[in-house]
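Researcher: Next sequence.
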Amino acid sequence: PITIRKEQRAEYYHVLEVANEGDVRPFIRFIAKCTETTLDMLLIATTEYSVGLPEADGSSAGCKQTIPVKT
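Model: Next structure:
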């Protein structure tokens, strides 16, 4: 699920109308932007400590790098 904030309502309706007229690109960009913002908020809200990153080879056995969390 994504969050569309009250402040974005006018933009949402505008891109929805444009999509209904045939050009879906602005709507897709808007939804992508909202999705990214929602995921960022969820990650910040659920991360209390630094998050370990898996190795580049795909194994999650050794998390060497971390992402610092700003508090």
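Model: Residues 8 and 34 are 9 Å apart (CA to CA). Strands lie at 51-53, 65-67.
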